[in-house]
Amino acid sequence: MVFSFIFLPLLIAACLPLIGKVSKKLIPDVLTNAALAFLLLNSILLIKPVFTRGSLLQNITWFGENVNLQVALDGFNLFMLFTIALVSLCITLFSIDYLKHYGYQANFYALLLVMVAGMNGLVLVPDLFSVYLFLEVAAIASYALVAFGLGPEELEASFKYLMLSVVASAFVLLSITVIFGLTGSLSFQAVAGGLQDLNGGGLIIGVCLAFFIMGFGLKAALVPFHAWLPDAHPSAPAPISAMLSGLLIKVSGVYALFRIIYSVVGMTPALSKVLMAMGTISIVVAALLALGQNDIKRMLAYSSISQVGYIILGLAIATPLGIAGGLFHLFNHAVAKGLLFLNSGSIQHITGTRNLNELGGLGKKVPLTAGTNLIGALSIAGVPPLAGFWSKLIIIIALVQAKHFGYALIAVLASILTLWYYLLIQRKAFFGPLNDRWLNIKEAPFWMSAANVILALLCILVGIFFTPVFRTWIGPAAEALARGVQQVLMWGI
After folding, report:
1. Is the Cβ–Cβ distance between 335 and 87 less than 8 Å?
2. Fewer CB within 10 Å: C terminus or N terminus of the chain?
3. b/e map of 420-439 (b: 16 or more CB within 10 Å)?
């Protein structure tokens, strides 16, 4: 069942281009959404065995023979698998109606499922080379999806993204190569033991860590490695912007970096300070840059960089509460930012523009779009009782408990900035006099609106039922991350 997270999306992706020759829309829509719904259900069904047994290890077999590929499952990567499946399913539901004016739905879904398989593989594998392998699988699919419209702007953004991502991958691969040379192994456990046995290898390990931070920092679009993201988002289709911001930068950047830190290298006070500083700089710089944007998606792109800073800040505190707050904000940001990017796609679908200066008064004509946008914005900004409030509050409390008062103050002030630029979107797009150009507009089609409503409800319900969600889901995931990958049980296929 665990390998289905990798092989099922790859299998469907391989079939979709052929199916698209027979059915342009219905079968690709149904097949893609059914596959993601199955993965979501599978992640829920695995909760009990994982939390009961601890870490689970599976070896892939092919006609009775072992293949050199393993997956390890614990509370942390199960949490990530659930998040990937949930947000991806909402994105593909939205795409049913959104892709009508693009065409080539089957090819789009195939690439998206390859990206999902790459992210799932990256989350599950317990060795460094497999991390790199699945990192590239997800990245290659994302390059193609950013350029999916094949316009000059899309191709330019995809090329820039490709070039910077290649640099990031080179840093990661170089670090993996050095570690293999030092330890003779690539598995998390063996490398962790090998690094502990090294004498006088502190400088080399520090250089490897620096390469990992630069590589995964580029993938996560942390300041100062963020230049590609504001260009990629406006060019990409709205569902792909939601995938990039809601999932990919967190999985290929944040997840990969902190899984390696906690499972292989270990969090040191010096490393904690560096990461906290980088997270804080991202929070402040990106929030200030967002204020000056008129393109909705470009503003949301800078917001993503800022919110990833909160996640990094929480995880870098290295206290149980800080780690839990960082993971909780990772989930909340995936849901809320996915909602906001899909909502921007709805606005563009309805009006033909994302320029805030050309909009106005849309709330009178499209109240559902306006309402879901407001919920997502308030959740990201940290307004109670929505989900984003609780994750930011936990991070701030963790900072205060760790006596990082300056960081806590900056986090609070940056949240005020976040609320400011999101209220600008609301005021310019949905309030004020209605532009004569929009007199005859109507709500986005059913599936686009349904996806927005589902994600908006999640922002509300997770906030209302914060306590049980945190105790039963976020807490165990944080404990698993803090422990690292402990391959203590063999679980046959």
Report:
1. yes
2. C
3. ebbebbeebbbeeebeeebe
Report pLDDT for 90. 95
Are the C-beta atoms of 201 and 182 separated by less than 8 Å?
Answer: yes
Q: pLDDT digits over 123-177, tens only?
A: 998 888 889 999 999 999 988 888 887 677 778 878 888 888 888 999 999 999 9
Helices (H) and strands (E) in the chain, counts: 22, 2
Query: What are the backbone dihedrals phi and psi of residue 59, each rounded to the nearest 5 degrees, phi first?
Result: -105, 135
Strand 65-73 relative to strand 56-62, pairing: antiparallel
How far is it, in rounded angstroms, from Cα 312 to Cα 439?
44
Encode pLDDT of 451-489 as tens digits: 999 999 999 999 999 999 888 889 888 888 887 644 333
Q: Which residue has the tokens 């693009």?
A: 102
Alpha carbon of 402 to those of 74, 256, 390, 397: distances in Å?
Answer: 27, 25, 18, 9
CA 72 to chain centre: 20
Q: Residue ranges of the domains in the chain? A: 4-483
String of DSSP letters for 125-158: --BHHHHHHHHHHHHHHHHHHHTTT--HHHHHHH
- What is the per-residue pLDDT for 65? 52
State the pLDDT at residue 67.
55
Identify the burial level of 206 via C-beta atoms within 10 angstroms of its C-beta, where 0-12 means exposed, 13-18 middle and 19 or more buried.
middle
Residue 329 CA: distances (Å) to CA of 133, 138, 386, 477? 27, 23, 12, 13
What's the pTM value of the predicted model, to 2 decimals? 0.91
